[in-house]
Amino acid sequence: MPRVATLQLVPFRRHHAPLGRIGLMAKRKQAAPSSETEDHSKAERVYHDLRRRIRDLRLPPGTRLDKNEMSLQYGVSRAPLGEAILRLATEGLVDVVPQSGSYVAAIRPQDIRDSLLIRTGLEVEAVRRIAQTASDELLKQLDANVDAQAAAIRAKDMDRLDDLDAAFHTMLMEAVGSPRALQLLDGTRAVLDRPRYHALPVYGRPNDTLAEHRRIVDAIRTRDPELAGAAMRIHLTMVAKAIEGDLAKFSDDASPKKRK
């Protein structure tokens, strides 16, 4: 009989070329998040918590920031902690003293006045521009924020009111569409955090602040830039007046060099 050839089926296997060094590095990056991203996220968390504690005076002026102790407290390495402290130092909330350490900065009246001047120029011009371009959605968001402020006042929740106050002004600056201006505003607000926060509950400021914010929103709604600018200027003038009246409570002699 003639011989019949048989065909043997072999499972197909895909052969990959070697990844090489660059390919392996790319694969590792896809497999796990970057350690730099994780460190930055940790630094953000530490920064915001430290800034709030400095604002509340739970970390009063002159307090030494012990990096070893704080690393344990926050559960982070020294790298993200150092990044957070450097950012606070850039904003004037921490003094870094060579061969000594990092300390919570004193509340310096001249720094406060400089920040108020910068903030006034930024926000008055910002709200003038917004009055000409504000969308209905922005006005709804501002109205909702102001209503939430009223609820915080009724509940006597000053922490919540302070957060909403900050969000109100940030919302306005974001509407201008200038990241650099927003960053500059945040830096000036950092210096004002402590005196503004502690002046907020006194002199009837909670209700006055609410009324001033409502007037700003109403002025924006008229689409009149001059009216909106005037409403913001009046508001910031009253903020400055309340802060100036409260500055006497704070001492400027909490020098890091005097604290051990």
Question: What this model shows, in words?
Answer:
- A two-stranded antiparallel sheet has the order 1-2.
- It is mainly alpha-helical.
- The protein has helices spanning 20-31, 35-55, 67-74, 78-90, 109-133, 136-154, 158-176, 179-199, 205-221, 225-246; strands at residues 94-97, 101-104.
- It is 68% helix and 3% strand.
- The termini are far apart.
- Mean pLDDT is 84; it is low at 1-19, 24-29 and 253-260.
Question: How do the strands and helices of this protein lay out in sequence?
Answer:
Elements: H1 20-31, H2 35-55, H3 67-74, H4 78-90, E1 94-97, E2 101-104, H5 109-133, H6 136-154, H7 158-176, H8 179-199, H9 205-221, H10 225-246
Antiparallel strand pairs: 1-2
Task: Please name the defining characteristics of this protein.
single chain, 260 residues, mainly alpha, two-stranded antiparallel ribbon, 10 helices, 68% helix, disordered N terminus
Question: Briefly, what is this?
Answer:
With 260 residues, the protein is mainly α.
C-alpha Rg, in Å? 27 Å
Q: Distance between termini?
A: 105 Å
Number of strands: 2
Largest sheet: 2 strands, antiparallel
Beta-strand proportion: under 5%
Q: Give the overall shape.
A: globular
Order of adjacent strands in the largest pleated sheet = 1-2
- The percent of residues in helical segments reads 55-70%
Q: What's the average pLDDT?
A: 84
Q: Helix count, per DSSP?
A: 10
Class of secondary structure makeup: mainly alpha
Order of helices and strands: HHHHEEHHHHHH
Low-confidence stretches: 1-19, 24-29, 253-260
